[in-house]
Design a protein that fits this description.
alpha/beta, Spore Coat Polysaccharide Biosynthesis Protein SpsA, Chain A, 7-stranded mixed sheet, two-stranded antiparallel sheet, 6 helices, about 25% strand, binds cytidine-5'-monophosphate, IspD/TarI_cytidylyltransf_bact, nucleotidyltransferase, 2-C-methyl-D-erythritol 4-phosphate cytidylyltransferase
């Protein structure tokens, strides 16, 4: 199988307040390395990677201490107010590095350290010829409720139509840049790259991924992953 070339963006300028930790969650330790390093290595280990931009808070004191801050394949961009601003800055940096408008870009959360190589390969393989691009996603498994302001159930939602959006999300550089810039200028709510593409009138494709590619959000997520990796002998 031919290796599809791609660029990568890892927005890592968030604070992650739900972790209630003394530092941004991407700098918490998991099996001897930071969460961010694990997330980066999921991409760095792939032979199709052309280069990677990580968006960091301008006053980030932790990054220079990481070994991968010296990796020549990684460039940094300034983080912005929202995730979409951080990703847009990284895309501009990629353009400056020589990436073309038609090149594929994979955007992956800094706090998703458990991306399986098989999921990454399936995403690249299934979307290689797609006109729009898409994302890893997982079908909802629980019964879902819509809630009113009083905290009581308004209705049960048809879960067969609901998927959780994961990362990486894979789009072509030019259309993604235009969609993010347009959505931000219009004040639209953009919580992932796909929602910017949707705002631009596109329909991203969902590629079913593993549910253990979780975004570390709460303390119990980190405990769960640490235990899992320990059981697998990964630490
Ligand atoms: O907060 P949440 O977990 O949804 O953030 C998703 C990703 O976006 C994280 O990797 C976070 O570091 C990043 N982010 C960013 N710039 C912001 C906010 C979030 O790079 N202003």
């Amino acid at each position: 199988m031919k290796t599809l070339p791609f660029w990568a963006v890892v927005p890592a300028a968030g604070i992650g307040s739900r972790m209630r930790a003394d530092r941004p969650k991407q700098y918490l330790q998991l099996a001897g390395r930071t969460i961010l390093e694990h997330s980066l290595h999921c991409l760095l280990d792939h032979p199709g990677l052309q280069g990677l931009v990580v968006s960091l808070a301008t006053d980030d004191p932790y990054w220079p201490d990481l070994a991968c801050s010296k990796d020549s394949r990684i460039q940094r961009a300034d983080g912005g107010r929202e995730r979409a601003d951080s990703v847009l800055n990284a895309l501009l940096r990629l353009e400056a590095l020589g990436a073309a408008a038609g090149d594929w870009v994979l955007v992956h959360d800094a706090a998703r350290p458990n991306l399986a190589r098989s999921d990454l390969d399936r995403l690249l393989d299934e979307l290689a010829d797609d006109p729009v691009g898409g994302l890893l996603a997982v079908p909802a498994r629980d019964t879902l409720k819509r809630v009113g302001a009083d905290g009581r159930v308004v209705e049960t939602v048809d879960r067969s139509l609901i998927w959780q959006a994961y990362t990486p999300q894979m789009f072509r550089l030019g259309p993604l840049r235009a969609a993010l810039a347009g959505a931000l200028a219009a004040g639209a709510t953009v919580t992932d790259e796909a929602s910017a593409m949707e705002w631009a009138g596109q329909s991203p494709r969902l590629v079913e991924g593993r549910s253990d590619n979780l975004k570390v959000t709460r303390p119990e997520d980190l405990q769960w992953l640490a235990q899992r990796w320990h059981d697998q002998g990964r630490d």
